[in-house]
Amino acid sequence: MSTASQRIGRVVILGIFVTDLTFRAARMPLIGETIAGTAFAMGPGGKGSNQAVAAARVGADVVFCTRLGNDAFAAIARATWAAEGITARASVIDGVSTGAAHIFVDDTSGMNAIIVASGAAGTMDASDADAIEADIAAANVFVTQLEQPLPAARRGLELARRHGVITVFNPAPAFALDDDIFPLCDYITPNETEATTLTGVPITNADDARRAADVLLAKGVGTVIVTLGEGGALLHSATQSVLVPAYHCGRVVETAGAGDGFTGGFAAALAHGDDAVAALRFGCALAGISVTRAGTAPSMPSLEEVNRVLAEPAGLPQAS
User: Fold this and answer.
1) Contact assessment for residue 280 and residue 233, using Cβ atoms and an 8 Å cutoff
2) What does the entry list as the binding residues for K(+) (predicted)?
3) DSSP string, 201-217
4) Among 27, 62, 131, 177, which lies 20 to 30 A Cα-Cα from 7?
5) Residue 214 annotated as part of some ligand binding site
6) Is 170 annotated as a binding residue?
7) 293 is in an annotated binding site
């Protein structure tokens, strides 16, 4: 990818939009307790929408599919997508609010805890994927997650597989899944907690992540990517296992958008034609920048910023 003005490679994403309501404080309150916060912000969020923003900012031609309510939060969604050049396929559901998320951010560490109410996007089903089949067929990469109902995600993966489109499945938030979904995934991108939920393998280091990844490969996944926070990200397939260290781009302000930034950047790089390891490095660099900024979608960097980080000496990926 050479300049931010070029949009090379199409990424279609099915997921949710929510309005993030972010509270910063020294700690989480206990049940029944009220504490003083240090800051509040409201802005665009939702895993699918965040991934769409991340991919669009680094040059991908992005189509995003979701459902919205008929309210002020929906207006925030549409303004966000218009500003980023994202093509929206967003049906409006009367009588149901657009989704929202409560995000607590620890003032000291930047770590977060999140409650998501999917709202209108929580009513999505397989028909939403069917409605964008032409978009999926024309895509280089299809991405989905689990904040919307599973039937919508599964149908999107099935259609992408039918049309020979690369599939990236971000199983978040994670829960037990039937094994028949895994062969639909060219790439699956859980974090440590999500990988443990899917496999039963506790993960404290890269070797644990490889063991969990082997479980997912046996279920039919093409390539497993386990994101390890400060430990970087592990790409593990039948033919290679590569650990890319995290990129440290400054003081950590907020980690809430890092996983979405990684997945959006990884998908954009794949759509551009990068190989999996190069796309892994691209996603890690994007995520490394995002944690130095507040917000989820607002924290996503430009293509020039990611390219500057990639051009700096950062060590070579570790292969085993």
Assistant:
1) yes
2) 256, 290, 293, 295, 299
3) ---SSHHHHHHHHHHHH
4) 131
5) no
6) no
7) yes
